[in-house]
Amino acid sequence: MHAQPVMPLTQVDSTKTPIIYKVLVVFAMMTFMGGSLIGLMTYINTGYSETFFNDWLTSFLFAAVTVMPAGFILMTLLTQIVEKWLPDTSEKKRNIIIGLFMAVTMESAMALSTSINNIGFNSYSALFSHWLDALLAALPLGLTLMIITSLTIKPSNLKLNDF
After folding, report:
1. Distance (Å, whole) CA 68 – CA 2
2. pLDDT confidence band for 152 (50 / 70 / 90)
3. How far is CA 73 from CA 26, 43, 44, in A?
4. Distance from C-alpha of 114 to C-alpha of 61, rounded to nearest angstrom
5. Residue bearing the bigger pLDDT, 39 or 103
């Protein structure tokens, strides 16, 4: 008996990550990082009370529909700009630069959205004070998380034209 030749299975291009995986990674990153940072910022703004979880949830949802999408777009644009301006710099160094810039930018924006949600616009000096307190309290955690993320997820794999 002669064995029939086996036709090779169609192989998936292993160099291109499926879009669903990218979306899931971004969603998980937004939930974990945003949720923990906004939780800390809410605590700094309001302290722990019986309304803490409601305050945290509304602050998280507010940031999820405003700050986080803008941050994702900014990160992809910044990645392309840094790659263009620093082509001879190692990918790891470029990712650290992107991570530092994104941490400061996103922390500032999330601190503002959290303070607006928790404090409101009744007093701009109180809003500024709560924004600054939340930013300074959460910045070390944000810097740590963003550096780890930018070194592991590789922002260069996230391009606007993928979505």
Report:
1. 61
2. confident
3. 11, 28, 28
4. 10
5. 39
| Sequence-ordered alpha helix ranges (H) in 86-161 | 91-119, 124-152
- 152, two tokens: 């592991």
Domains identified in the chain, total number: 1
pTM for the whole structure: 0.73
Look at residue 8 and tell me if it is in a domain.
Answer: no
Residue 67: which of 21, 28, 116, 124 has the closest Cα? 116
How is residue 3 annotated by DSSP? P
Kindly report the average pLDDT of the chain as a whole number. Answer: 83
Q: Is residue 11 part of a domain?
A: no
Measured distance CA(27)–CA(33) in Å, rounded: 10
Which residue range(s) make up the domain with 130?
A: 19-162
